[in-house]
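During the no-cost extension, the postdoctoral fellow (Dr. R.K.) reprocessed legacy sequence entries with the updated structure-token encoder. One reprocessed record is reproduced below for audit purposes.
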Amino acid sequence: MQRLMWMVAVLVLISISGRAQTSPQPAVTSSPGEAQERMFFPHDMFWGWAQFDLAPPHNEIDPNLCAGNAGQYGGVSAPCSMFARYMLSGTLEVRPFGRSQLRRFMVFGSPAFLFGKNVPQTLYTWSFDAIGIEHSWGVGIYVAKGFELRWTQHFLFDRLGARDTNLGTADLGNNGPWGRYASVGVRKTFGTRRW
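Re-encoded structure tokens follow.
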């Protein structure tokens, strides 16, 4: 439960920091503008987004924790009912340095919280029971011209509450859709959004 509260607090922080940065800021220029920026914790060090998703009946989010035929192991009372109706997700990027080449460095995190109690072709509810958290974090460096070099660590799915035990024959374990992995990647951003 503490982990859930921590992740919700991070997503609220993302929303607050995004709202605080909606006022237009002067364009970053060459070294004179850079010299006025603080070295540590600049005014625009946070960037991120938060999103709430709702999956309609017969189209639940499948974190791959229960077998697709989980309904055969208990029908509407199947113990493995971890197919989500709701998802709360987001990303927070922190760029703690405002000057020098260190301003290209960032740390990021991307949690996804899943909620629901459904079994495909057997049980469809609007329950908001907590299923668990899928999260990843990493570090990155802005290279040039919209390219970033990123290292990402993706963890196993963390179950919450009473679902943090083996839930019978249909239970596939904590690997989630991707399992645990680390990767090195390149991200290219382009264009500007027109609001």
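The CA atoms of residues 136 and 154 lie 4 Å apart. The chain has a mean pLDDT of 83. The remaining legacy entries will be reprocessed before the final report is submitted.
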